[in-house]
Amino acid sequence: MVVTEEIGVPSWDLYELSIPCTVFGKPQPDLADPWYDLRLCGTGARPEEEGDGTAGGHGLSLRTRYGLDDLIGADTVIVPSVPDPCVEEGRPLPWELIAALRRAHEAGARMVSLCTGAFALAEAGLLDGRRATAHWMHTAQLAERYPKVHVDASVLYVDDGDVLTSAGLTAGLDLCLHLVRRDLGAHVANQLARRMVVPAHRPGGQAQFIELPVPADDDEGLAPVLAWARANLDRPLTVADLARRAAMSPRTFYRRLQAATGTTPLQWLLDQRLGRARSLLESTDLPIEKVGELSGLGTANNLRHHFLRHLGVSPGDYRRAFPGARANGTGRTRTRV
């Protein structure tokens, strides 16, 4: 992970810095062994004087054991953020950083940015012709400064294969858990999220900014009915069924769910069912037909249709990507779902 040091570390950037450290930096041998090997790589510059520190790092700076040369050869390179003057004032990023990012990508590294880290990837030309995102407060600047980048201001994160970008703050955590899910499977990502006491999975296409009014004290919200729906995905659920269980009209339920999640009830159900199917494929040896039945996606052909459309692979190919995950002693249930 890149740590830019030239103007210190603003306190509000510590969140993005801490996310990869929390997700990748602490070994989890009971979930997967080996775990990730995280190295913080500094730009090597000394923080500038900022008077009383209120405009810069608030008196805080970081010193790292590794430098930019250590980015070369990494499997994944993460840029959590860049200094505010580089975003707001157009101050140039260190040319050594940009060169190192290009070299790492050319060497085959998976490139990841959180929040304003997208500006560094864009400056290196790694986002040209690609869809990308950043914090919604900075996406207009990103699009204006780098017109070759297809900026999507609405989503939590974008997975473009070997280059991934996320919105700011908590969306960075969503993307890091998505990387764990890609690398080690849904079971490991879910268990890690549980330890961190965060939602196990928010799809990248979910809206960054959702207008959600504070509920009244006597409003139980949607949580009970959504929890019930997750526990009954094998049933032929409809919006009317969920609205009835929530004691709302279908129109009110639709509006409330969209305000709370940024998606429609049917899309929410499909996301949950795809997540259940992925978890079953990764953690059990159940036949494809049974996976379709238990996830509520129906026949094997229907399951295949949704996987090809939304994930780009067939269920069989997806399962083959996790051959050791179902039998590596990580405590998964093979015969009981």
TrEMBL record:
Database matches in InterPro entries: Class_I_gatase-like (IPR029062), DJ-1/PfpI (IPR002818), Homeodomain-like_sf (IPR009057), HTH_AraC (IPR018060), HTH_AraC-typ_CS (IPR018062), INH-QAR (IPR052158)
HTH araC/xylS-type domain mapped to chain residues: 223-321
Organism: Streptomyces afghaniensis 772
SMART domains in the cross-refs: HTH_ARAC
UniProt KW DNA-binding keyword: yes
UniProt cross-references to PANTHER family, sorted A to Z: ARAC-FAMILY TRANSCRIPTIONAL REGULATOR (PTHR43130), HTH-TYPE TRANSCRIPTIONAL REGULATOR RV1931C (PTHR43130:SF3)
Protein name: Putative HTH-type transcriptional regulator CdhR
Keywords for this protein: DNA-binding, Transcription, Transcription regulation
UniProt superkingdom: Bacteria
Cited PROSITE patterns: HTH_ARAC_FAMILY_1, HTH_ARAC_FAMILY_2
GO molecular function, one term: DNA-binding transcription factor activity
